[in-house]
Each structure stands twice: as structure tokens, then as C-alpha cells.
């Protein structure tokens, strides 16, 4: 027994050392590398367990390699043609469209997503507006329904959605359903089987069979996508659960933002779903029936940017960074987690120091305690640079929105943190439209009324206990 323990101890020590070497040579950013090495040094056992669950990055590109043959060839061709046209200044070359041109070029390059023009979109403020619209459109579906969510709960609204999907499947529609296996951990077999029994095709994204399968636990599908008949799409910050309707007593009112899109931009949401479906099932859905001919919806310019471990570029982070640096008047952001990497931190502070009106709304209550205190650790430097930080007082704010000047907006699933920008699978809609900008501006103005603005002089004199909490949160945030 003694020999066995000795051998086990030696093997554990060697494995821990090897993890340290791997972390060092993986060429992550220095902050993450130092954090992981420090955790392993302070507590090899805890560091070992955390790294198994959250840290491995080896071969992720191979693991998440995109299958180009399942991406719609027409969408790729359109993106290439548009990129050439933008470079040759044949479109969007007017002075007032310079920001559009730069952003369109960026997303064409880093996300291969074409800019779409024939669109009509609608901002859905909070859960009731989102679910009322979703339920109506699901009931009116004629051909197919594709759904992909990080969190789906077996509660009242979750069962309402389930019952609609069951009814549409019984009517003969194709219904495909992707849920994240960690985000929807407690969904339950009864819920899933009720869907499967009527012909709904249901798959879990990266199922976690054993805790040791850490890559599967680390890289999560944080997207929220619904595509109906290839013509109507939904995306944004609201998952499927009663708390998003403000029914959680602890969190209270849930302030969030979603978006409904009708038109060509839905093609790219469809394309993202098709790629994720292929990753889960190896079934190709490359069929024109999923990309129907569309009627005229309007003239809103929309690009859909997706990012994740399978992406060559961190496209959503780059898009945020570029919009912040391109701004000439204002940058207004809402995010539940404010844990920017160094580049984003510099961009925000530089914009504020340049005289740009930079405002950020964050929660005043915590749903994830480490993220809460990690967010607070960045506030002092932002306030010092002139960034206005607002704490939302009327419940919990979970929206992921960005408003730049009077023309560019973003609504999606990505938080302003390391996990969304560098680890999770995310999707954001970037809209270049003054009406949508004004609509989001009204939401921001309303939210400011429910916020308390943080004061730099007061905040820099906060107590030692809070500083310690912030330091711990900041230390752990790069790896959580």
C-alpha cells in the first residue's frame, strides 16, 4: 500500500509538472500563463483539478476544425465579392459611411460574414417581449424550426416552448434542437425524450460524460439562435427559463435584450446553426431549402459575426475593439461581466481620454461571485480615465449591447469578458442603421435612470476587504 501511494504521488507530481510545462509552451497571453502557474504553485491539487476542467487548450483547432463543405458556398462567394468591392471603394465609400466601410471590411475578413441589406429587425427589451414574439412565430412556422441555446430549463416557459415544438413536429415540420450540455445540465431526460418521441431531433453540444473530459467542459456553446423557415431569426442575451421573465426571487427583475431579424441576415444565423449541427451529428444540411427566396423586408444593413475555438480570428472581440476605436462621439455598453483583456481595457480608456462619451452599465448584484468581483477590479482604472460606470439597481442586468455614435450597434450573446471573447462559441448581430441605434439609445436612457453612477474619488477609497475580493476575482477571472 505504501509503495502504491509513493508511486501515485510521484506520478501526480510528474503530471503536475508536465501541466506547468504545457501551460508555459501553449503561448497563451501572459496574464493567463502567470495565473495558471501561480495556482499550480500555491496548490498543486486544486490547480490540477481546475486545469483538468477549465484549462486545456491543446489541439482545440483540430478538435473544432470547420468543415468548409458544409458552409453555404453562396454565402462564402458573396462575402468574397463584397470584400473585393469594399477594397475597391465601389460601395459604402461616402464620407458618412466610413465607419460602416471599416466595420464591414473587418467582419468580412475575420468572420467571412457578408453584409446583408434586405432586412427588418426589432429590438426585444426583456423576456416578455422576446418570448411573446418567439412563441407567435414558432406557432406560425410552415417548414422548419432550428433552435440552439446555451441554457434551456424544464420550467414554465421551457415547457411552453417544448409544447409548441411538439405540436409543430406533429404537424410534419422539421424541428432540430441543440442545447449546451453544461449550460442545460439540469434539463433532464424526460424533457428531451418528450421532444424525441414526436420526431424532434435533439442533440447536446459537447456532452460531458466524465469530469476529466475538460475540453468538453471548457469550450461551451453560449449561442442563442432560433431560425424559422429560413426567414425569421432570433439572437441575443436571453436564454429559455423563468428567471429571464423576472421570476427568480434572488435575482428579481431580469433586464435583458434580444433581437428579431427578418431577411437576408437570417441566412447567416442559419449557416451557424448548420455548422453546429454538423459538429454535433456529422449530418450535412447543405440544402437550398434552408435558404428560401425572400420577399422585400427593408434596407437595414446587418452583419452576423460568430466566434469560438473554431475561429481563425476572435471576430467579436475585434469588432468591439474596432468600433470603440472608430467612435467619434460615444460608446455605450451594457454587459453583465466587465472583465476586459488588456487590449479592450486600453481601447476603453483611450476612447474616454480622447473625449469620447464612454459609458458602461454593469450589475449591482452578482449571479457569479468571482465574475462580479473580477469585474469590480477593473472599475478604478476605467473611472480614472473618464469612463462612466453605472451600477444597475432595478434587478439584474444581463444584456450584451453596444451603441457607437448614432449608426453602429451590436446585440448578441458575447459578454465583455475573456470567456466570451476567447473561449466560448458566441454570435452577435452588428447593425448599421440609425433607427435601431435610436431604439437602443432609448433603452440605454431608460436604464441609466435605474442606475447609480460610480464615483472615482469614492471608489478609490474603498475598503481593504473589497480590494482583497477584487484581487481574488481578478486573479481567477482569466481561467474561469
From TrEMBL:
This enzyme's EC code(s): 2.7.8.-
Membrane disposition: Multi-pass membrane protein
SUPFAM superfamilies: Phospholipase D/nuclease
Family annotation (Pfam families): PLDc_2, PLDc_N
Keywords: Cell membrane, Lipid biosynthesis, Lipid metabolism, Membrane, Phospholipid biosynthesis, Phospholipid metabolism, Repeat, Transferase, Transmembrane, Transmembrane helix
Bilayer-crossing regions: 7-27, 33-54
PROSITE patterns: PLD
GO terms for biological process, alphabetical: cardiolipin biosynthetic process
GO MF annotation, one: cardiolipin synthase activity
One Gene Ontology CC term in the entry: plasma membrane
Lipid biosynthesis in keyword set: yes
Function recorded in the entry: Catalyzes the reversible phosphatidyl group transfer from one phosphatidylglycerol molecule to another to form cardiolipin (CL) (diphosphatidylglycerol) and glycerol.
Protein name in the entry: Cardiolipin synthase
Species for this entry: Anaeromonas frigoriresistens
Phylogenetic placement of the source organism: Bacteria, Bacillati, Bacillota, Tissierellia, Tissierellales
